[in-house]
Amino acid sequence: MEASPAASAWSSVNSGIVLSLAAVLWTVVWNSLQSLQLHHLVGRHLARHARRLAAVVDPYLTVTVAEHDGGRMKRSDAYREVQAYLHRATCDASAGVRHLRAEPAKNPDAFVLSMADREEVADVFRGGVTVWWLAYSTPPREDDAGGGFYWGGRAARADRRFYRLSFLERDRDVVLGEYLPHVRREGRAAMVRNRQRKLFTNLAGDTWGDDGGWCESVWSHVVFEHPKTFDTLAMDPARKKEIMDDLDAFRNGKEYYARVGRAWKRGYLLHGPPGTGKSTMIAAMANYLDYDIYDIELTSVRTNTDLRKLFIETTSKSIIVIEDIDCSLDLTGKRKNKKKKDAAAAAAADAADGDKKGSPPNEEEEKDKEGSKVTLSGVLNFIDGLWSACGGERIIVFTTNHVEKLDPALIRRGRMDKHIEMSYCGFEAFKFLAKVYLGVDAHHLFDAVRSLLRDVDITPADVAENLTPKAAGDNADTCLAELVKELENAKADKAQAKGKAAMAAEEEVDGDGDDDE
Ligand SMILES: Nc1ncnc2c1ncn2[C@@H]1O[C@H](COP(=O)(O)OP(=O)(O)OP(=O)(O)O)[C@@H](O)[C@H]1O
Ligand SMILES: [Mg+2]
């Protein structure tokens, strides 16, 4: 392995003494020129020679990665990736790091360890290129502390932390062209492995954002720990497999999306009656892919610009969810325009009448003005990936109980690529639930359940509720008997309702007949 920059400085004292003296002499001359304001004259020409001389005296180049770039509060991604990349080397006894920094970790009992200031580790790339990473920090700049002014906030008042990478000049191309991208890639992978998944929700909040700009909607998060997985989601096994294969294809589709020139995103529309497992499916997807969830409450987003900002702030490997899209928003642009036209026509009529001139706007109109101004086209832009310049894999999921109410533009393929109907519980889904909840594969009541499920619509949520033991003595027999009873009652209710409807129809026909006479 090559000597580190520090070690090398010692060993090269003898051989480099003449060059060092020349360098010192050069520095003195250069400083004098600077102090006499002559350096501009000597300028570029000498600077070129100075760089050559420096390369002879000190053949090391450096790259510095700062924790906060441009005074932002948010830590730079590159810094976090380097930190994650160096984590293993930092903890490896043979690397000789003696002083560590500890930050809170995912596991409440553990710490994330990194090198303390002035510690250095060596790394060997491709068996031949040795580099050195040094951690150091500097005190905050005077102007950063900012007398309580918001910019940079707490981050600006803390020490400024850096990693400095040193390497030999001869390895310049390999380090800059291959090693650094390798570090970022590996660092990102390590972060994904260690990260704690999060569930983000947007809040309407007038506040300063990370970028120092004024935000009217901000993300707030909690740790995402939903127990539901595809293993416990009841649905037809073939359909479940189809969805899992689709997710796999998406996850592994980076090259495919790049080749066809599309943003790496996929839209899923989950539709079906309440309690059929749409929200549960989203949790299972997130657990399967190991993604974060961004749950957008559209009614708290005031404008299309805010929606765009929220979207830009989402990170890669995430599922962006809009639940009950039909209720969240007046997405029917055409109808809204029509309503406006109708209102305008009515206003014109009123004005013509003259009796309502100058009347105050009604309450509903006022509310409209105050509320969300997110429009259908705002949402369409958002889905179309116009804002995916930030790159990375994102899944967008809409859920609705009323697919027929949605504007066709919103759910066409290419926007919502896959439509998944979550329906009432069939026999396959029931068998699955019986296995999960009661641990039974077969039972003499299964036949009765099978035939009742053909006649009755019951949600997986209701079946699951019936199959959950509630008292001490409850077991498979009692729970299944309970379910059969509920299904029989539902069947009887349905028959009764049907009978009533038929009678009402008959009466109507009779009534019509009487009128005719
Ligand atoms: N297919 C299913 N498999 C397993 N459990 C389910 C399934 N569907 C529903 N459940 C259970 O029922 C409950 C309600 O389901 P969920 O919230 O996913 O329904 P939903 O379709 O999102 O309803 P809504 O339209 O009202 O939002 C959950 O607690 C879940 O555990
Ligand atoms: Mg739901």
UniProtKB/TrEMBL annotation:
Keywords: ATP-binding, Magnesium, Nucleotide-binding
Listed InterPro entries: AAA+_ATPase (IPR003593), AAA_N_dom (IPR025753), At3g28540-like_C (IPR058017), ATPase_AAA_core (IPR003959), ATPase_AAA_CS (IPR003960), Mitochondrial_chaperone_BCS1 (IPR050747), P-loop_NTPase (IPR027417)
Stretch list, region Disordered: 348-372, 495-517
Cofactors, names only: Mg(2+)
Cited SUPFAM superfamilies: P-loop containing nucleoside triphosphate hydrolases
UniProt lineage: Eukaryota, Viridiplantae, Streptophyta, Embryophyta, Tracheophyta
Name the record gives this protein: AAA+ ATPase domain-containing protein
Gene Ontology BP terms: response to stress
AAA+ ATPase domain segment(s): 264-426
Record-level Gene Ontology MF annotations: ATP binding; ATP hydrolysis activity
Biased composition (Acidic residues): 505-517
Short name of one Pfam family: AAA_assoc
Family, similarity comment: Belongs to the AAA ATPase family. BCS1 subfamily.
Catalytic reaction(s) noted: ATP + H2O = ADP + phosphate + H(+)
